[in-house]
Amino acid sequence: MIIEHPTEIAHFLLDRAIRPGDVVIDATVGYGDDTLFLAEHVADFGHVYGFEIQKKAIDSCADRLTKANQANQVTLLNQGHERIITALPPDLKVQAAIFSLGALAPNSFEHITLPNTTISAYHQILSRLNRGGLIVFVINPQFNETQEEIDYLLADLSRLDANNYQVSHFKDVNTNHGQVLAIEKI
Ligand SMILES: C[S@@+](CC[C@H](N)C(=O)[O-])C[C@H]1O[C@@H](n2cnc3c(N)ncnc32)[C@H](O)[C@@H]1O
């Protein structure tokens, strides 16, 4: 299969948006697949800010980054993404961000992302996003995100001003391997 996982679509889009030296955000670090991808893309003169509420996930990601020699350009924060704006240096502009919704692992239903905090966090990032910058949301049913979160997010995204943002929705037609939502600041 060419597209096996919604993350591949999200990474394809991020690959087009990010250049070496950019500042980007991983809003849901987990075990760090996306963090590692972002670290490689911003290179050693860019920066990744990663947010995650579970310490065991942060520790695992930190270990992975060190082994891959990508730790220098990453700041991992063991805190919720709903406080993103207070954690970023003032006036810092952001080129891209990723949210991977749901739980840490397929068999886990604890600490899943929640509609209010996801929506609050992405609005905070929008206030710092460069023109031409991108926010992507990965929705993979294996990670147990709730339909309530998807519905709230879709409703909120549909209200973004079309003069300033293009919102796109990538999803399967005859299966449900996942979906990707993307906001581009125009
Ligand atoms: C689907 S997983 C992320 C997968 C990860 N991006 C990867 O590459 O392995 C979602 C993660 O979001 C985390 N999470 C849930 N609520 C959060 C919040 N308010 N702020 C930051 N992280 C949160 C969960 O602990 C979980 O690890």
Can you give a write-up of this model?
- There is one protein chain.
- The protein is α/β, with parallel strands linked by helices.
- The chain has a single domain (6-185), classed as Vaccinia Virus protein VP39 (Rossmann fold), CATH 3.40.50.150.
- Helices cover 34% and strands 24% of the residues.
- The protein contains six helices and seven strands.
- It has helices spanning 6-17, 33-42, 55-67, 84-87, 115-126, 147-158; strands spanning 23-26, 47-51, 74-77, 94-100, 129-139, 165-171, 179-185.
- α5 links the parallel β4 (94-100) and β5.
- The N and C termini lie far apart (32 Å).
- The mean pLDDT is 96.
Element layout with pairings:
Elements: H1 6-17, E1 23-26, H2 33-42, E2 47-51, H3 55-67, E3 74-77, H4 84-87, E4 94-100, H5 115-126, E5 129-139, H6 147-158, E6 165-171, E7 179-185
Parallel strand pairs: 1-2, 1-4, 2-3, 4-5
Antiparallel strand pairs: 5-7, 6-7
Helix pairs in contact: 1-2, 5-6
The chain binds S-adenosylmethionine.
Strand order of the largest sheet: 3-2-1-4-5-7-6
Tally the helices.
6
Average per-residue pLDDT, rounded, comes to 96
Distance between the termini: 32 Å
Q: Uncertain segments of ≥5 residues (pLDDT<50)?
A: none
| Main sheet summary | 7 strands, mixed
- Approximately what portion of the residues adopt beta-strand conformation? 15-25%
Q: What is the level-2 CATH architecture name?
A: 3-Layer(aba) Sandwich
CATH-defined superfamily: Vaccinia Virus protein VP39
Order of helices and strands: HEHEHEHEHEHEE
How many DSSP E strands? Answer: 7
SSE-based structural type: alpha/beta
Radius of gyration over all CA atoms, rounded: 15 Å
From the 3D structure, determine the CATH topology: Rossmann fold
Question: What is the CATH C level class, in words?
Answer: Alpha Beta
Task: Tell the overall outline.
Answer: globular
- Total domain count: 1
